[in-house]
Amino acid sequence: MPDHIFEFTGPRKGLYHATQRSALLRALFPKEEIYSKEVCCQRTLDVLTLWRKRVEALKAAGCLRLQKEEDKKSRSQWVRNCPPHYVERGERRGLRSCNMTKICPWCWTEAYGSDTYSAIADYLFPGGKPKTQLYRLVAREVTFTSPVGDTLFDLIYYARGYADTVRKARLDRKTVGAFQLTAIYATKKKEWRSSTRFLALIPADQEWKVEGWRVSAPIETKRQVVPFAARFGAYHWGALTGDAGMMAEYLNAKIPLKLKSTFGVFNNRGRNIGDVSTLHEAGED
What we know:
- The chain is an alpha+beta fold and 285 residues long.
- The chain contains nine helices and nine strands.
- It has two domains: 8-89, no CATH class; 105-282, no CATH class.
């Protein structure tokens, strides 16, 4: 199966797609007008080119998911043709998502950006109508960089310990519901790095005077949810440019960490992405 030639014609309508578009293009190209038809289409093509190069680099580095053959078709070629959903394109038949949510730019931003938006919007606007009580969103992101020589599991230990501390101190007791996400990637300098993110919902009249957290205005429209969900599910350059050997190691590992978790009213809403040892059984990544 050869590379599919995509013909992008412009951004797709809807806040679900706007969240995914922002989670990817706003994160990678923060100074550009991603809602412009020309910019959106060109930058999506740019990411597609980088993604296809990354797939080949990961395959050469020993990524097991890319070594498989499915229905006599190359798994890596299928992954190279994984389609972005936030842009209008021509032919849609015969293309399906690769579900490599740990690293694919399209699957990552849908699972962690758009799905998060949907869960929040569905709760705040049941049946399309706003709840009588107003709520705010609060968010935080903390990045860890492991010293050269530390292993992937050293990084996971640091990230998981911090996340557990925040969850017990803040998310479990002081929020209506929350999401937690850990992004793991390698740098060009062969360092392990993680980004631990939190996004929580609180009543609008509740004070949240905690340093380092962003707090939204009272949520009155679905559009207000988009920037918070997009930043929570933002893609990272490290997935495309970090050391390929280390990223292949990460993708092959059975890690004792659930990348995305949900709490409170959001528990089991959207996708809970778990340990890679269970992902292969479930058919997700």
